[in-house]
DUF5941 domain-containing protein (Micromonospora vulcania), 686 residues
Amino acid sequence: MTLAIVLAAGTPGAGLTTATGEPLADRLADQLRRAGADEVRFAASLDELAALADTARGPLLVTGTDLVAHTAVLRHLATSPVGPTVALVLSDPPVPGRAAVREERGQVVDAGALDALDGDATGVFGGALRVGVDDLPTLAAAARAAAAGMLPVASPLGPAGDVAPLPLVGGGGPLGSVAAGNPGSAVDRLVAGLAALGTLIFAQRVRLLVAHRVDDAAGLSAAEAAVTAVDEDRAELRLSVKEKDDFFSTYFVSTWSPYVVRVAARLRLTPTGVTVISVLFALAAAVLFGVGGRPALVSGAVLLYLGFVLDCVDGQLARYTRHFSAWGGWLDTMADRAKEYLVYAGLGFGVSHAGLGNGWALAIAAMTLQTVRHMTDTWYGVLHDEAARRPRSASGASGGIGDRLNAASTRVQADTGSLSYWLKRTVVFPIGERWALIALTVALFNPLVSLIAVLVWGTLAFAYTGALRTLRARWMWVPVLDTVDATLHRDDGPLARRLPTVRPMGPLTLSVIAALGPAVLLVAALLGDAPDGLRWAVPVALLVLLVGGLGAGAAHNGPLDWLVPAALRAAEYLFAIAVGVVGGVPGWLIFGYVFVLTVHHYDLTARLEKRQAAPPLHLATLGWEGRSVLLALVAIAGIASIGMATLGAYLLVVFVASVVLAWFVRPARVARASAASAVAGGGAPR
């Protein structure tokens, strides 16, 4: 249940009447209902709002009474998938009494009076925010502190949401600075208080639509005219396309995909349905790549392109219809990787089938490279978000190469549409460019050229991004693995947790060493004439691999420890591939086993991005070291193929069962329990 609160306290626009003679506050209440609020309440003070927050059981929508906007703006705020707590941010010039904000990577990292932000303001607060359930206690604390004329600050000793009130005086922080010049409206003091308490607030920018805060009748009239001048539905269709996308997606997909979105909406297709169709297109393309022959290869390339268009359409349809769900986001993430790796499998089979070489080896290499790249992308994103939330002095010293690289990157990203901007976005080899490269090379040449091109460009992109990110990370010096469950995201099993901890070397060094043993064994097996003769070396490589477990209990707070999960993924994949080569396992079976591992690891990172707990059956996956020990045992016993097939099938069953439990069984149980509780209490579910 979503409760909306119109906060009238201290709003300059309170009492204004619209062109139709309706009070602006009443129109806002009606818009909030149409935006999805189940109930709308008016609060005359911050204390009253705090009391409502104390009893709320769902997210809160809070607005002042001075906002003039399209209803779609409020609907986007209410349904935004970026995070639980979201603030409306405008590009209007700041005025006294209104909170300015500093935004980094889509997060409001500071809010308050303009002078309190030391010239770093990137926008102004739009007078409306959505607060997630977990942040409601913090909202109530910020409201009560602001109502009492106090600046709330996070308590270093108390639990989350505790505040240590400080008087509102100039220089006391964002909220104190607002009070020093002008108390501002209640909603401005509220968002400043939330920011002061360290709440993770995401920014909802207004693009193509209209939203303005007004102080008088003239401002109201001008804002209403601006709203009327924009076709809301047409703007929403254009907004379904990402504002900043990659080159291929921008110029070869998004120029016509909105028409597909409109048709899909009229046919009442869901984003999940479109995702499933895109998987079928990719699967058909993979089959055609495996069949070979020029007609099949060209047809597969066309299907691959259309599949990528649909891959963009599912997200655009979700944004257009505002049908977001955690399940849909998770499924989209997993489907993207499954489609790409199925295409690699088709290309690999096509190479081997045509007698052009060992296609499965190339497909395995491409999948491993891309997965390890994605692991570094995920954790670097977490690193950057954490750096944005911390005071700048904590992110590293000023100056140096890291500072210069960061400034250069910011300048390039701001120069939208320039040659340097597109080069930067293209050189990293995003998914649109990968699919375009595959489609073109396979249609013009053959699957072998396609896989080699993917490997070459992917390796160069990995080297480029890895070098720059390492330099910037050393400059920022922001640990991120100590802010999450490192054991979960390392994918440690029971054995790694029981190994002794070697702290002086650090978890990253140990993880890199762990990858070296399997890498040496794999190279020796590939270059040798009799790989089976290296069976004796499997236990040695396993012992080197287990060195990575010696860092499980150490603090992961080094500037480069965000690379640990990727290093452990590389170590496990290399060991599995080496065992397969030494044990004479067919290439398709090695590919299938590593594919199952990648699905498991993408599930972990998708849950990290969606801020979800561990999969229900995570302990049953045995951990990277447990799986590796089992593979070593079957290789020594001479049954590597049987063992790898059995373990892969087991992990796939565990994964499917975990998905069913997490997304269907457990939510159904919660819904039944909630309904039963409501019946026992004599009321409807809240």
